[in-house]
Amino acid sequence: MATQSQAAGVAASSDSSSYPSSFAAWYSVAVLMLMYIFSFIDRTTISLIVEPMKRDLQISDTQIGMLQGLAFALLYTFLGLPIARLSDRHSRRAIIAAGVFIWSIMATLCGLARTATQLFIARIGVGVGEAALSPAAYSMITDSFPRSKLGSAFGFYNIGITIGAGVAFLVGGIVVAAVSHAGASYTLPLLGEVRAWQMVFIVTGAPGILLPLLLLTFREPARRGMLRTPTAPPTAMARPPLREVLNYVWLNRQFYCLHFVALALLAMCGYAVAAWLPTALIRAYGVSYGQVGKILGVSTILMNSTGMLLAGILCDRLTRTGSKDAPIVVALISACGIAVFACLPYIMPTVPLVWVAIFVAGITFNAYNGVGPMAVNQVTPNQYRAQVSAVYLFVVNALGLGVGPTLVPLLNDHLFHDPLKIRFSLIIVVFCAAVAAIVLLWIVRPIYRQKLTEAAQWQ
């Protein structure tokens, strides 16, 4: 029976180039991870300054949700594919450098916004810049390591999510707690007077402007794992027409659709919690901004990062023992942990137990982030990787980031009609999304195993 790859009329190309040295490979991942840290600082900071923003901009919870999710996701999702297409054809380092510079500028401009409309536009700009990072980074990492080490490499890169979010909580909590009374402001040279919440955006956004210089300190890895049509010249392999890429995705839609939606549902859990957990705890338990920021920051950096690294190590160990669906198995474990543990912090009877529940939930909460895109890149030809990764991120962020932060307050407004009960809306969204993801991942396991067997013919 012909495989889907054969149906597409593609054949394997040889790839005899060696991988970068171990030091060079891990150094490049460390630089990319640092940029991922800053990207999540800039997209997450807003979640801890909800109340001061509502007060000064005079907006509702639903409008805050749109600023957190929809504004960022609007062009982040739609520009991902054209930017990734450039990454599959041109220097991936250059694409990343341009994106980092743009999002850092726009994140800083968030701190100068005087109206909700201005802030919405600046958040769109942050999303435009960040769309350039992960598709190109995924492609570079996959070209830098053999399959038996990819789990650890992707896990290490993706702890940028947890460290970045943790730092955002810490910095946001410290700054807002330091000057949390109404009317508090700073006066900056050339910029004039800014509120405390605006200062958070400036402090976290401006340092990223210099990050692109680090990309000059390592070389881009050689591309490997190419496919080409029998009649195509070698120079055409890295420049497939968009129609060819979309045709490949369509031919393999059974895997891509199920996997993308499953990971998008888990991302919905993550973004919904990141957006509304601080506010839910402040309203329900009367804790301060400083308390929430410190606990969430430390927990996210320590527990969530540890869980992601352990997920990568577990994935590599399962791969070495012959498991052909190791990334999917690890993602399933993460999804089960989210369904069971991520709903507990909001129903604890005391504040200390809330903190304990947050630390416990952190172990599995972000574990899927590394193995999810790793699975996609393992079964996607090199010249399609950044573009297919962009499609993956489009689905993940359209559903996860675009819907998650807005769905929670929307559900609360129509179901509970009480801002103090937003924690219950958060529980409903997280549990239902996690359970649906578990079902889809279980279905996709045998499909992934088949795709990996096909990929072995050309990798």
Characterise this structure:
It is a single chain. The chain has 459 residues and is mainly alpha-helical. It contains 18 helices and four strands. It has helices at residues 4-7, 22-44, 50-57, 61-78, 80-89, 92-110, 116-130, 133-144, 147-178, 196-205, 242-251, 253-285, 289-320, 326-341, 351-365, 368-378, 382-415, 422-455; strands at residues 11-12, 185-188, 192-195, 227-228. The strands form two sheets. It has a two-stranded antiparallel ribbon. Strand 2 (185-188) and strand 3 form a beta hairpin. Helix 2 runs parallel beside helix 9 (147-178) and helix 9 runs antiparallel to helix 10 (196-205). The protein is globular and about 60 Å long.
Q: Based on helices, strands and strand pairing, what is the structural class?
A: mainly alpha
Order of helices and strands: HEHHHHHHHHEEHEHHHHHHHH
- The DSSP helix count reads 18
Average pLDDT over all residues: 83
Number of strands: 4
- The main sheet orders its strands as 1-4
Helix content: over 70%
Instruction: Provide the β-strand percentage band.
Output: under 5%
- Stretches where pLDDT is under 50 for at least 5 consecutive residues are 1-16, 229-237
Distance between termini? Answer: 21 Å
**Any idea what the radius of gyration is?**
22 Å
Largest sheet: 2 strands, antiparallel
Shape: globular
